[in-house]
Amino acid sequence: MTMEATSVEQQPQSREPVLSMQGISKKFGAVQALTDIALDVYPGEVVAIVGDNGAGKSTLVKILAGVHPADSGTITYEGRRVAIPTPAASRALGIATVFQDLALCDNLDVVSNLFLGREIGDFTLDEEEMEKRSWALLRQLSAKIPSVRIAVASLSGGQRQTVAIARSLIGEPRVIILDEPTAALGVAQTAEVLNLIERLRERGHGVVLISHNMADVQAVADRVVVLRLGRNNGDFKVPDVSYEEIISAITGATDNAVTRRAGRTSGEAGDQ
Amino acid sequence: MTTTDKQSPASVAADLQDERLIQREGIRGAVRGFATRVRSGDLGSLPVVVGLAIIWIIFQALNDNFLSPNNLVNLALQSAATGTIAIGVVLVLLVAQIDLSIGSISGLAAAILGVGLTQMNWPVWLAIVVALAVGAVIGLVYGLLFTRFGVPTFVITLAGLLAFLGLQLWVLGPNGSINLPYDSWIVQFATSMFLPPWLAYTLSGLAVLGLLGSDWMRDRRRSRAGLSTGSKSIMLIKAGLLLVVLVVTVWYLALDRGVGLMFLLFLVLVVVMNFFLVRTQWGRSVYAVGGNVEAARRAGIRVNRIYISVLMLGTLFATLGGLLASARLTSASLSSGGGDVNLLAIASAVIGGTSLFGGRGGAYSALLGIMVIQSISNGLTLLNLGSPVRYMITGAVLLLAVIIDSLSRRSRASHGQA
């Protein structure tokens, strides 16, 4: 539960993945939602998962969050093979998921929301300790929240997203999954959340970012994993890849490395 | 990067470092902050207190006896039973559910008490325990039906309203009315036990000391945690106001019979319930479930347990209220818990400021609400206006309370606090 400067001790991009998925498949009835998916998450790295609607992004996230178990494949967490049958198991491992709808209680204040379900105190609540830790945590994230004693309802979209992300950090998870964190936000709030994601990376968390917004992905992600129709369709390092390449991998204008190269040379091929 | 670099963190409390925060210190700050809150729709209990004052002034103008010590002692005793039921209603409303069967359940409790004392020759405590156990079981069944099958509590308790009315009639048997033995202690407790003035003053003093002590302890914990503390003068003014209110009340009521023990029990229940709601993890979970049940579930709160515990407390308070009501009237009859008990208890909770939509309100709304409802009822009786007028006026007041709730909700929304 310690929040004190863990940011410097972990080197970004250490070579051992904190979370590794291999050969993950998932079937819903007659639909093969995921086929043989591989995904590695390193500490201090932001991995963006992109893909069209129905590509399997949400299914993959739900497997990690313990909402649906995978049909086959292995999940390795910190070098151990693990199963994630329930949301509680996912959280116990150290995987925190921030869903798109944030799941905040509007009628409660920021402190109550941050510690909801994990309140400090034996019989009576230790409000002072919780408030102190809330401030410490929000300061670490440079969160711009004027008071932690106001109802969450009165916060802006970006501030609410910040509270939701800060809440996921309470249990000191090693992997944080953010589902569309900027989808409903304005320009300034989006920038705030992107700053926050960078700060998570600095603290040494592995961050999985689901997004439709290529600008955001290119702004903060270190690596982009493209899903298409439930299969891996590319794994790019962000500095080495162009917008068009990602788009063509998403839309299927390229289905393998060879056509991907061809697509790159012919320029606008994958613009749709 | 941070906005707080200009000030040294040591000199400013951790929660006051944001430069956008409007600083309000001292008494003037507190008054100004209160005015801002009221304007932005965070009315708190202000409308109820103002409403109560208006009601009392009107009735006093119409009938000199209304504010007489004798009548206020009666008013306090009349409030206790329905007020106790209203505490349960507050809890159920906080998780955004409703219990429509509280009247029938309180009637059933009265019937059990009456039959137990007169026909089975049970000791009083046994009759009370049996009635409370039945109430708890009913709440448990409600909770299981709601959490297992997902039937709306509105429907479950509407079925309960009828079913337990039937059970009440069945328990009462063909006579339909049972007089409680006047010398049993529960009847004495509800009708003629009053605090001696010295004890009432002592308890008032203890209550004020308790308030001061808890405020002072909180300030100490906060300053130790590096957080801002409230101003000492406001703390003292608050305690002084409470002292004045309590002492004047005790003194005035003591001109007649004094503070009834049953009313004291009601007050204690309100304070205890407020403590559980505000200071414990269970209470926090109740508000969370009422605010956003899905968020509560994902935060790891065992939502079903919260629902079941709240519905059980709702029926338990209804049972207790039924016992108190029948003891005060020294009878259990077909009409126990019938008529307007149901709606009066729900109206009290809503008028007192507990939202019908869950997540907003508190234990004190049962106290404030029942004072309003009972004042109207009592005043109209003094004016020799019977049930027809009373029902209509109570209905109008309930509607007014809901309108104020909706308006302040809208105002909160426009001030970004919905």
Oligomeric composition of the shown chains: heterodimer
Q: What order do the helices and strands of chain A follow? A: EEEHEEHEHHHEHEHEEHH
Largest sheet of chain A: 6 strands, mixed
Along the chain, the helix and strand elements of chain B come as: HHHHHHEHHHHHHHEHHH
Mean pLDDT of chain B: 86
Short description:
The complex is a heterodimer of chains A (272) and B (418). Chain A has 272 residues and is of the alpha/beta class.
Could you describe the 3D structure shown?
The complex is a heterodimer of chains A (272) and B (418). Chain A has 272 residues and is of the alpha/beta class. Chain A has one domain (19-241): 3-Layer(aba) Sandwich (Rossmann fold), CATH 3.40.50.300. Helices cover 32% and strands 23% of the residues of chain A. Chain A has 9 helices and 10 strands. In chain A, strand 7, helix 6 (187-202) and strand 8 (206-210) form a beta-alpha-beta unit. In chain B, 41% of the residues are buried. Mean pLDDT of chain B is 86; it is low at 1-10. By secondary structure, chain B is an all-alpha fold. Chain B has 16 helices and 2 strands. Chain B has 2 domains: 44-193 and 260-406, ABC transporter involved in vitamin B12 uptake, BtuC (Orthogonal Bundle), CATH 1.10.3470; 194-259. Chain B is globular. The chains are: A alpha/beta (272), B mainly alpha (418). Chains A and B meet through helix 2 and helix 4 of A and helix 8, helix 11 and helix 12 of B.
